[in-house]
Amino acid sequence: MLRGRTAVAGAALAAGVVLGAAGCSSGGDGAGGGSAKAAEAPPPEIVPATGTQGVAPDQPVTVRAKSGRLTEVTVADAKGDKAAGALSADGRTWRTTWGLKPSTAYTVTAKGDADGRAVTATSSFTTLKPRKKLESGMSPLDGEKVGVGMPVQLLLSQPVATKEARAAVERSLEVRMSTPVEGAWNWISDREVDFRPRDYWPTGQKVRVVAHLAGVKVGDGVYGMKDRTLDFSVGERHITKVNANTHRATVTSGGSVVRTMKVSLGKPGDDSYSGTMIAQEKTPHMVMDSATTGDPGAYRTPTDWNVRLTYSGTFVHSAPWSVGSQGNANVSHGCVNAAPADAKWFYEFTNRGDIVQISGTTRKLRFGNGPTPWAKSWQDWLAGSALGKSVTGAKL
Question: Under CATH, to which class is 238-372 assigned?
Fold first, then answer.
């Protein structure tokens, strides 16, 4: 994914041509003519010019061969970190692919071949200091094995409010896959953009996401500070279907049923959500406190083997107190109650990102109640992209 950007203004550095010549000549005119001809070969032109300060980091570094072709171009900071770039098909123009780091000194070295004569040019410049810094975090965890429904979440430290800025962020995001499939980014809020495939991830999929955020401008004086890379893999296709009317949960792996559990869902007035959710996190032991849902004093209960399904507090968890109702009636405060042995098994079986589908309740899952990418149709999800188009991952 390349970003279209306009080059910064700046004059080219005029650098001398380095030539090595030795030998005898019986004609002075011939030797003098050769040196004059060699001196005519112009060096490559570099923008920004040497000595330039306050260069906008979202503007590309460009190098152009005035004669012949470019043979090597490097753009490096003081630590030796190099900026990626690409050479044009005719070999005459080179430009950076992604943005540069703010508040950083760079040196450009360009080498070329002008009709068999080596030419060299250099430029040193410094990028501007941002007014505000855009930092980022990503989920899942680097190296994590996740379920087939897990989205990629990019969390941002500054709001990205305009469509233009959101498009700039999306253009900086590179997704590579071992088995390329179609997917899309969707803006959950002005500080979060998520990626999901059109359909669930294939089992065994390996994914690498590179957020080339360094130098991305998202507001007046607000720039991304550094890139971020995430690698994760996808486990078996775990799908659990929970039916509030039959009071049963059917767990499948790879399409085969591996366990059926008796459950109890939310009682009238505390109905569970119906919809397609994912396992968001797992906590072996915690205290369920009604104060977190705005109803202090209603309950405060220690629970085991908790698998979270929503931000608002829906879990699959062990509930020894409701075993008599499990399989027969819905008596919980909205969670999916299971017997201790079933809950422990489900906790150990489940990966973050596994699919849990609940049906038969009067309460519909609200998009944004946690990572809920499957609460929207593909077309609605796609409509949340600032670029308005899907992405097919490049081959990893």
Answer: mainly beta
Query: Do residues 304 and 331 lie in contact, with contact meaning Cβ atoms separated by under 8 Å?
Result: no
What is the pLDDT at residue 204?
98
How does pLDDT run across 158-173, given as a tens digit for each residue? 999 999 999 999 999 9
Residue with tokens 């001809």: 37
Supply the pTM of this predicted model: 0.86
3-state secondary structure of 30: helix
Domain boundaries, the chain: 28-126, 132-235+378-395, 238-372
Counting every residue, how long is the chain? 396
Which residue is catalytic, options 212, 247, 333, 335?
Answer: 335
pLDDT in tens, 84-120: 999 999 999 999 999 999 999 999 999 999 989 999 9
User: DSSP for 79-131?
Assistant: T-PBPPEEE-TTSSEEEESS---TT-EEEEEEEEEETTEEEEEEEEEEBPPPS
For 124, counting Cβ atoms within 10 Å of its Cβ (0-12 exposed, 13-18 middle, 19+ buried), the class is middle
**CB neighbours of residue 103 within 10 Å:** 13
The residue type of 272 is: S
How do residues 32-50 score in pLDDT, each as one tens digit? 444 445 457 899 999 999 9
CB-based contacts of 29, cutoff 8 Å, min separation 6: none
**Active site includes 212?**
no
**28-126 belongs to CATH 2.40.37.10:** no
pLDDT at 121 over 60: yes
- The fold adopted by the segment(s) 132-235+378-395 is Immunoglobulin-like (2.60.40)
Strand order in the sheet with 394-395: 145-146, 228-234, 206-211, 173-177, 394-395
Q: Which of 212, 247, 317, 333 is catalytic?
A: 317
Catalytic residue check, 317: yes
Q: Which of 235, 179, 186 is nearest to 207 (CA)?
A: 179
At 26 the three-state DSSP class reads coil
What pLDDT digit, counting tens, does each position of 267-317 carry? Answer: 999 999 999 999 999 999 999 887 877 778 788 899 999 999 999 999 999
If DSSP codes are grouped into helix, strand and coil, which group holds residue 159? coil
Fold equal for 28-126 and 132-235+378-395: yes
